[in-house]
User: Which sequence fits this backbone?
């Protein structure tokens, strides 16, 4: 390479062998200006004005550097050096992403099942070249390696003007919600974007104006799935919308699903139909199907047998088909999880706290969200908190069996305030919640406090179920005569 060659001649004092111009460099030894002249001299001597050597210095192999240099015959070496420097600063200045770009590239390819246009074909070829190297697509997360492979596959990038093309493009993308540090994601996942002009991008994203209502939404959509700019994906978007329209799924639900998981747009309608038929067998169709895909659109990209396996798993626990239908409408995320890594682990948690297999159907039916709750960060801390109050493990298991939504209540926002009111103000033992764990489901301000003060004002002895288990009308009729509980009574002065 140029710099190494100059240093070798300096160290070996061989500049005199280069003729009269070499003698000038001997006189300029140690001078920075002299060093730059030496590099330019070496470039000139190589016959390609040093472009091949420079490209080698940024990581290209000799053969790749020679190939790229053929595109740059009109570029001077100083202009090329400056352009590379600017490109790295504009697009590759962020830190390495830890493999996230590579992970998204694999996901985008995995869910692509439609005919593709030339731009997507070029992108896939780019991925295939990187996948063939040691490290595979994870190399996309390395700034140095990804820049090198990008230039090798798309040498015309170096013909673009920094001032009139690249910088305005960066400014435009930032204005529609793409942070500077994330620009590399767009370019590596869909390199043709860098050749577009701004008006071209505007026209392409116009097709998704109903999905992304504001500009910032477009930026988020691009970051999730930059392939929306390709003509193949835009055409398939029309097919997907038409398909769900024929299934009488509300268009707002379809748009919400695409906005959340735009990878759907790479999936053929024939594959989508297979999953929709599975939902139909469960009785999930039309508006209900819209609710499901809006909440968990990734389900559309699952294989029918994967959905069937989760259904069979729940049936093996003793859960009937009608309950499964209600669960999929209420918490469809469950059906996109792993049986081994997620569902079975939650069952181990339940049995570990003392819930027997016979009680599992009731627990799951009342609170299916437990399957998508984190054991270590949510479920276990909540159970531990209840035991720190003096309840035994057996008490907690009994409470969960009777009222499993207890597993979903935040400690600081729900459990602790109601425990403190129960013990400190109502002066009741904490063990009262064992018989009536539903206590935690009622609003402290709108129901628990108003009813307590009514009963206290009448010196009525009551259980938590007596106080909270009745409707407003029944409570008013029993404890207040004809007065209504629809408007809570005023609180005592010390509670206002």
Assistant:
């Amino acid at each position: 390479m140029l710099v190494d060659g100059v240093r070798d001649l300096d160290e070996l004092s061989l500049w005199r062998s280069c003729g009269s111009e070499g003698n000038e460099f001997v006189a300029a030894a140690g001078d920075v200006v002299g060093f730059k002249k030496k590099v330019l001299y070496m470039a000139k001597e190589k016959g390609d004005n040093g472009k091949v050597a420079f490209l080698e210095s940024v990581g290209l192999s000799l053969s790749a550097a020679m190939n790229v240099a053929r595109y740059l015959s009109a570029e001077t070496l100083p202009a090329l050096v400056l352009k590379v420097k600017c490109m790295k600063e504009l697009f590759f200045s962020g830190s390495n992403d830890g493999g996230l770009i590579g992970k998204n590239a694999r996901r985008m390819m995995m869910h692509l099942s439609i005919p593709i246009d030339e731009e997507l074909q070029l992108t896939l070829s780019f991925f295939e070249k990187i996948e063939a190297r040691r490290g595979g697509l994870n190399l996309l997360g390395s700034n140095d390696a990804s820049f090198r492979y990008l230039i090798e596959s798309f040498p015309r990038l170096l013909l673009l003007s920094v001032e009139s093309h690249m910088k305005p493009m960066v400014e435009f993308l930032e204005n529609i919600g793409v942070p500077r540090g994330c620009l590399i994601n767009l370019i590596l996942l869909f390199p043709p974007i860098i050749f577009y002009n701004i008006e071209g991008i505007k026209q392409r994203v116009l097709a998704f104006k109903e999905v992304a209502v504001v500009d910032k939404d477009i930026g988020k959509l691009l970051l999730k799935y930059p392939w929306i700019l390709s003509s193949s994906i835009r055409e398939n978007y029309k097919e997907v919308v038409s398909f769900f329209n024929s299934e009488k799924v509300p268009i707002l639900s379809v748009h919400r699903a695409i906005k959340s998981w735009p990878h759907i747009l790479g999936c053929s309608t024939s594959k989508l139909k297979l999953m929709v038929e599975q939902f139909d067998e469960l009785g999930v169709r039309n508006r209900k199907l819209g609710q499901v895909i809006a909440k968990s659109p990734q389900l559309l990209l699952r294989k029918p047998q994967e959905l069937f396996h989760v259904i069979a798993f729940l049936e093996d626990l003793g859960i009937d088909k009608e309950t499964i239908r209600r669960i999929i409408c209420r918490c469809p995320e469950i059906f996109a999880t792993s049986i081994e890594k997620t569902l079975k682990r939650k069952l181990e948690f339940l049995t570990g706290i003392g819930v027997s297999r016979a009680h599992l159907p009731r627990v799951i039916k009342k609170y299916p969200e437990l399957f998508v709750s984190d054991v270590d960060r949510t479920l276990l801390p909540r159970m531990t908190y209840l035991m720190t109050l003096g309840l035994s493990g057996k008490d907690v298991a009994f409470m969960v069996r009777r009222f499993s939504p207890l597993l979903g209540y935040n400690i600081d926002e729900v459990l602790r305030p109601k425990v403190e009111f129960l013990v400190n103000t109502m002066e009741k033992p904490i063990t009262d919640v064992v018989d009536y764990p539903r206590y935690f489901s009622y609003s402290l301000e709108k129901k628990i406090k108003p009813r307590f003060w009514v009963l206290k004002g009448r010196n009525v002895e009551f259980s938590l179920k007596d106080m909270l288990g009745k409707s407003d009308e029944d409570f008013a009729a029993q404890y207040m005569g004809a007065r209504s509980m629809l408007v809570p009574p005023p609180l005592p002065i010390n509670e206002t």
